Amino acid sequence: MRSKAITLCSTMLGLAFAAPVAAQGDLVLGFLTAETGPFVSLSRTNEVAARIAVDEINAAGGVGGKKLRYITFDTAGNPGQTVVGLRKFAEDDRVLAIIGPFSSGQVQVAAPAADRIGVAIMAMASSAPKLVAKNQYAFRNTSDEGYMFDKVMKTLKSRSYPMATGAVAYANDDTISRIMGEKVLPALMQKNGVQMKASVDFKLAAFDLSAQVAQLKASPTDLVGVGAPPEAAIKLAQEMRRQGHGGRLVAGSTINDPDLPERMGKEGNGTVVPSAWFPDLNQRTRGFAADFTRRAKAAGLERTLASQFDAATYDIVQYYAWAMREGKVSGDPKRLAQERTAIRDALKRLKNFPALEGSVSFGADNDALKPVYVQEVRDGKWVLLETHPAPQ
Hints:
The chain is of the alpha/beta class. The protein has helices at 21-24, 40-43, 46-59, 79-93, 104-117, 145-158, 175-191, 210-218, 230-242, 260-264, 283-298, 308-326, 336-348, and strands at residues 3-6, 27-33, 68-74, 97-99, 121-123, 138-140, 165-171, 195-202, 223-227, 248-251, 272-275, 353-355, 358-362, 368-369, 372-378, 381-388. It has two domains: 3-143 and 280-371, Response regulator (Rossmann fold, 3-Layer(aba) Sandwich), CATH 3.40.50.2300; 145-275, Response regulator (Rossmann fold). The strands form four sheets. It has a six-stranded mixed sheet, with helices on both faces. A four-stranded parallel sheet has the order 8-7-9-10, with helices on both faces. The two termini are 41 Å apart.
């Protein structure tokens, strides 16, 4: 894995290698990135969002007059490398807190390690239900998929969309995809009166889903719940339409890639998913989206539209800056353990924070309580169907 130190006020990706943390006198975060791996289309751009946040914070005077910066470690989305990176940040680089990791599989191993060391981590995408509820230093700037998908079902009902019957299709070799396919999707469909008729699974790397779709087509349903990253969801939608299955795809937030509607094409029309982010919500979100696109293009990234996980990463940096102010963090190496705990304690009492994603608080299970924006794919675009306010 590669580890690099980067000054956050820079506006270009992958530039400067900084000196050791303590020599700079800055307040330093670690960032467990995932520049390769199964969720790379969603994770590779997160650093652009982190840079925007830090540029804004530093332009406004930093935190207590000190600059904020981060150093990165590419985990490749691998749980084992996630723990390696976490320990390096905590023990060698002596960072104050950690952005990431990305996925539930990574958080599952990183959370107990963070507790043992005593340093806060905060995921931007992990959403397996109650995954960090018993941890002391692990947080997630996400709402669990059960909470998110329940809002999808409520919106389908309010819109009177056909939902008498359902099936699920999911990747069986990814933590959150398997949880979605085996537990979250079927349970919430049944809770909302949907008769479940079929369940199929596949490998993330599967190229051909014709056999699985043939099973689904043998018992056609109004809804097909998808537990998979975006790439697999696209393959499933295309194969379903090729075989003449007209069911509506529904899913959790794991497939909500900003350019998913365009990548799905007409085969994806009608797909309904939740998100904690809608770029056209207000002037602030539109400004962030425009800045993100400008920077992503300058960096030569393939995707230049901000995703909900990019917005979540931006907000994580803002939460940490707020917690540092609340905890009167100085960056004094002699007070590292106390200041790490002060950041943790401040996060636990964060309420109604004016985040980019909306008004956000942290619940007793260490997950963010956020608004949910239920969206539908229509002719290559996301269309907002309904906004569900954050619970108080």
